[in-house]
Every structure is written in C-alpha cells, then in structure tokens.
Task: structure prediction
Amino acid sequence: MRFQDQVAIITGGAQGIGLGIARRLASEGARVVLFDQNGDELGVAVKELSGEEIEAHPVTVNVTDAEGITAAVGEVAEKFGRIDVLVTAAGVVGKTNIKTHEVELENFDWVMSVNVRGMFLCIKAVLPAMLKAKYGRIVNIASVSGKEGNAGMLAYSTSKAAVIGLTKVVGKEYAETGITCNAVAPAVVRTKMVAALPADQVKYMTDKIPMKRTGEIEEIAALVAYIASPEASFTTAFTFDATGGRSTY
Ligand SMILES: NC(=O)c1ccc[n+]([C@@H]2O[C@H](COP(=O)([O-])OP(=O)(O)OC[C@H]3O[C@@H](n4cnc5c(N)ncnc54)[C@H](O)[C@@H]3O)[C@@H](O)[C@H]2O)c1
Result:
C-alpha cells in the first residue's frame, strides 16, 4: 500500500497504459483521478474499475487546453487537498509508416501538441501543489522511439525525444524540493494505439526487441508504480527503460 492516502492524476487514463497504471496505483491505496478527452471511454473505464472495487474520478479534458487543465487540476487540489502523483500517459502516435518528406505539417503539429505541450501544461499545473507539500512524483510516459528514433514515425519520435528532454529539465529544477520527475520509455505494448498502426510499422518495432515479444500493460504499470512511490527517492530526471532489451541506456 505504497500510495495509502495519496492522490494521483493519470492523464490518458481512460484506456491502455494509463488505465493500467491507474488500476495499479489504486490497488496500492491511491485515490485516482483520470484525465482524458474521451468521455465515453472514461465512462467505460470508471465502470470497469468500480467492478473491481476501485473508485476512480473521471475528468473529461483535453491536455492541450491550457485553461481546461488549470481548472481541472485546481478542482482536484480543492476536492482532495493534495496531489501526490502525476502520470502523463495521454499521447497520440499520428500518421506512421511514412517518410519525413511525406509528413503533413498539421499531423506533426497535432502529435507535438498532445505529447509535448499537453505534458508540459499538466506538469506546470500540478507543481504549485507539490511545491507546497514539498513532495511529488511526476512520471512521464516517453517511448523508446524518443531514444532511438523509429523510421516512419518522425512526429512521434521527435515528440518523445522532447519528453525525455523535458523530464531532465524538470527533474533537475526541482531536485531539492522533494519532487522527482522521471520518464519511462516503453517499446511496443499492445494497446488500441498499436492496434491502429500499419502491420509493417508494428513488425519493424517488434523485431527490434531482443525478448522477441511485446510488453504488457501490467509490466509498464509495475515500473511506474515504483517510480511514483515514496521509495524512489534518489532518482530524478531519468528515463527508465522498458524495452525487453532493445535500448540498454
Ligand atoms: N502502446 C505502446 O506500444 C506504447 C509504447 C511506448 C509509449 N507509449 C505511450 O504510452 C502512452 C499511452 O499509450 P497507449 O498505448 O495506452 O495509447 P491509447 O491510445 O490506448 O491511450 C491513450 C489515451 O490518451 C488519450 N488522449 C489522447 N489525446 C488526448 C488529449 N489531447 N487529451 C486528453 N487525452 C488524450 C486517449 O483518449 C486515450 O485514452 C502514450 O503516451 C504513448 O505514446 C505507448
């Protein structure tokens, strides 16, 4: 019960990796607040969790909406009186299996906006509460594509490299405050995001994994739970690997 009495916001919490993380943190005592733009999926997630005796609090919000995020985080702080953990899992992959000269500006801007601007806005919004409490755990979901650069995925890989850079800065800036900021860089995990990709692109990514299998949501959630816990107190600004051996740094 590492999160007893704690409050955790998980963006992209309606499905996939975000939902798996919410489930795991809640199983260890956290009160979980799910931020997601997909209200329908949020409803399904909350019902599913409630069947497992987990009370999740849904907030329908677009992470790229500065005012919406400020208001949503303010409401969480007011309702619960604390924000201990922020996990930023909301993300989009955009068009893939295309070369750089084929990337449309609009698609590039959208991916960067959700994956980078959205993450920055959420982090900025929770920091005042964490600074006041002299405690906080921020865990950003990056990707191995941000370290390695996946051909065919310019916008996504660029955005995830930015996530790793952002994590280093935030980690260092608040290193003396009791707040840590780390990232996790997973390889392929079979979620709806991956199901929507061209088969060639998924094969390209999966073939590079030495364990010769994709990751499981529960494996990512277990790693995030450690990083988000009070136990992970001497690591910040770091990007943890979850790639079955693909990246070894
Ligand atoms: N699945 C993988 O193989 C994999 C690998 C590495 C990293 N990741 C990262 O993990 C995170 C979760 O991915 P997933 O596979 O669970 O994807 P997913 O598509 O299953 O879930 C993503 C969630 O984010 C939400 N979202 C998207 N845009 C949003 C916005 N603007 N505002 C609010 N919510 C928004 C979606 O509604 C969805 O519920 C993403 O950041 C993704 O880039 C995934």
